[in-house]
Amino acid sequence: MGRAEPHPDGTGGTYDVILADAARRACQREAEAGHRTWRSILFEEVAEAFAETAPAALRAELVQVAAVAAAWIEAIDRRRAYRVPGDHGDTRAEKQATSC
Question: I want to staple 44 with a disulfide (CB 3.0 to 4.6 A). Which of 7, 8, 27, 49 is the partner?
Answer without folding.
Answer: 27
